Amino acid sequence: MATFSLGGSLDNELFAEAYDEFLEQYRLCESSIVDLEHSPEDAALLDDLFRTVHTVKANSSMLSFAPMVIILQELENVLDLVREGQIPFSDRAGDLVLLLMDKARDFMEQYHSAQQVEYDDALYESVKAGLQKLSMAPPEMVAPLLVNIIALVDPNTRQVPLEEKHWLDTFTEPSADLSFLYNMAQACEQRVGYWQGRTDRVVKLALAVNEAGGSPVDANALAASLFTHDIAMAFCQPLY
To answer: Residues 174-227: pLDDT tens digits?
Structure first.
């Protein structure tokens, strides 16, 4: 733990104005995040959220609250990437913003009541490092890093487990057409009733063999042909 205090006295009127502004920005932040949960790609809402955090950081800098400025600057960098579309906005991203805004509120309130702040400097350094990693992370690492940072800030936060990657996604590129064929093949399995699981087993094996051989056949095309085969077989009369 560390104790933050300013060397000289802080003008009471200046702090009061900054404190009131922070509370207003906190409410705006909550409102933006609620709206973004329904429209996560809304550029105006993303800009609003970025500006809110930027304003809080600027006010913290004006007050010389150095520990919070460092964290908020890294958060601002992440939100800049979010509004540029490099990092998708998600419920976890919103949770992280609110948790860090809570830290900022606690910092402000402690100073308001005691003119000093007790804070976990090791935690702040870990969060700073986590946000820096997030800013440079490849797309597949964004969600796990968000989970890790949230757990650092508030270990008691209940988080929905990350969805396990479907086996098909490990071999193929995202494709709405391929997903459609896979779902239809699964429906045909249910209709026929006597080869449950066959499609998954055969396609997994074929894709694995193809990959082991250096992928001479396009994985999406291979999977699509096998799904189509099984869909067609479902309409054939069984030979008894």
So the answer is: 888 888 888 888 887 777 666 677 888 889 889 999 888 889 999 999 999 998
158 within domain boundaries: no
Task: Please give the C-alpha separations between residue 16 and each of 10, 53, 63, 119, in angstroms, as whole numbers.
Answer: 10, 19, 11, 21
Residues 90, 178, single domain; the answer is no
> Last residue of a domain, which of 118, 153, 188?
153
97-151 tens-digit pLDDT = 999 999 999 998 998 888 888 988 899 999 999 999 999 988 888 888 898 899 8
Q: What is the mean pLDDT of the chain?
A: 86
- Evaluated on CA atoms 61, 66, 70, 72, the torsion sign reads negative
- In the predicted structure, residue 159 carries a pLDDT above the cut 60: no
DSSP 199: H
Say how many domains are in the chain.
Answer: 2
User: What six digits make up the tokens of 1?
Assistant: 């733990």
Q: Are residues 11 and 89 in the same domain?
A: yes
Which CA distances in Å does 3 have to 116, 123, 182, 217? 7, 13, 58, 62
Contact 112, 15 (CB under 8 A): yes
239 part of a folded domain: no
* Residue for token pair 């460092």: 70
Using the 3D structure, point to which of 125, 153, 181 is the last residue of a domain. 153
pTM of the prediction?
0.64
Tokens of residue 25, six digits? 């920005």
